[in-house]
Amino acid sequence: MRILRYIFSVTSLLLVLPAFSQKQGTEAMRYGGIRIGVDLVPFVGYFLTPPQKGAAFTMDAEFRDGWFAVIHAGYLNFNKEEADYTYHNDGRYLKFGINHNFVPREPGESEIIFWGLGIATGVFTQSADPVVVRNGYWGDYVTSVGPVKMRPFWAEMTAGIRVEMFRNFFMGWNVRGRFLLQLPNKTPEPYIVPGYGYAGKSFSVGFNYTLSFRIPYKIKVIEKKKKETEEEEKK
Amino acid sequence: MRADLLLVLTVFLMTTGCQYAPKCLEPYDVTLHARFVTLAGTQEKDTLLQNADIYGIGREDSLITAGKESFSKIDFPPDPNRNHCSFIFRYNGLYDTLVFSYLRSVRLLSYECGYIQEYRNLKVEYTMHQIDSIAVVDTLISNKDDENIKIYLFRH
User: Fold this and answer.
1) Which residues of A touch B5 (CB under 8 A)?
2) Is residue B14 part of a domain?
3) How many structural domains are present in chain B?
């Protein structure tokens, strides 16, 4: 219980600190709003061997100064052609997380350098068709395996940057460390898990390069109250 | 600041993406491992066969013993297309028929090696001209070297 109370206290402190630091800035406005983006890394997959056809989209919003709620969604269609089999994997994934900007920003500045935590899941179907069983004596046997449907879970740690190149238009990258929490014990073991990467290891590293656009529906006014108070004092 | 960040990004991209493709190091062939033995009293002895021929029924043109003048062990290739296969065993001018029946299942060896077909619940039927009896040691025919059957021959 004491540990839980400690964790709760630290978490509360982390949530309160940004609000506190907000009061220390000068008067300025910072645009808020939902940022919608596309991850360019999956498109690189089209040029890989074997090709990985996919796309990923990201959406985040600053719900508190320096704290961002993030949703990342994507799909992957992967085919691996070998001499004796062709492997197919088709799936979608969804990630939820929170990113935190850990460097001080000037008022009005939207660039962030962040770390984040998240949880992810997906659903994918894998199969192998055709599968050729070589037999030099009786003759080859052609068959297929699957399809098998699986739902994995994994956790993610991330760190990266977002830079506002033009007003409301952002570019950025982030590195992801992914920890596989659960993969259904079905055979065959998947070659790849969409959104996670190669399934042979319980840890994988990924990379996102994001172009995003912020819909600036919300405008935050920082320290307006403080200035108003000062003006009242002068009067 | 923006230029610095993009420089960091470029360097990062240049240093990632190296991968290598591991090769298949596991045995790929799946055969039924058989050993010929005779009983000397209660002791069994490996029997070296000379001028013996074995071929599959339907594959009379292809001996699985081709190139072997003598042998005490032989690997029978199971038919991956059917749940059974038959072989003719000719020795000392006598012919025996062996019929292997099994259940087939495809298993992924690894993505580097590909798939193999395994054979479970191995059962053997046979004629008894030269063959005294057959003991099934392991009912799973896989890519391992484990012995599957012992073929006991009559003593002459």
Assistant:
1) 161, 163
2) no
3) 1
Q: Are B34 and B149 in contact (CB under 8 A)?
A: yes
Higher model confidence: residue A138 or residue B2? A138
Is the pLDDT confidence value at B127 over 90? Answer: yes
Tell me which residue range forms the domain holding A87.
2-234
Domain that holds residue B79: 24-153
Q: Specify burial of residue B60 (Cβ count, 10 A radius: 0-12, 13-18, 19+).
A: exposed
Residue B16, pLDDT > 50, answer no
Contact flag A187-B106 (C-beta cutoff 8 Å): no
Q: Residue A138: which of B13, B79, B114 has the nearest Cβ?
A: B79
**In 3-state terms, what secondary structure has residue A118?**
strand
The alpha-carbon gap from B106 to the nearest alpha carbon of chain A, in Å, equals: 8
Residues A72, A97 contacting (CB under 8 angstroms)? yes
Residue B3 lies in a domain: no
Q: Is A137 on the interface with B (CB under 8 A)?
A: yes
Does residue B10 form part of some domain? no
Looking at the domain assignment, is residue B90 inside a domain? Answer: yes
Give the Cα separation of A173 and A100 in Å (integer).
15
DSSP A82: -
CATH of the domain at A179: 2.40.160.20
Using an 8 Å Cβ cutoff, are A63 and A35 in contact?
Answer: no
Under a CB-based contact definition with an 8 Å cutoff, are residues B107 and B67 in contact?
Answer: no
Which parts of chain A fold into alpha helices (H)? 2-22, 41-44, 224-234
Higher pLDDT, A6 or A184: A184
For residue A41, report the phi and psi dihedrals to the nearest 5 degrees. -60, -45
pLDDT in tens, B51-89: 899 999 988 888 888 888 888 999 999 999 999 999 999
Residue-level pLDDT at B2? 52
Number of domains composing chain A? 1
Confidence category of residue A44, pLDDT binned at 50, 70, 90: confident
Nearest to A178 by CA among A200, A195, A161, A160: A195
| Structure confidence by residue, pLDDT tens digits, B24-48 | 888 888 999 999 999 888 888 898 9
pLDDT above 60 for A227: no
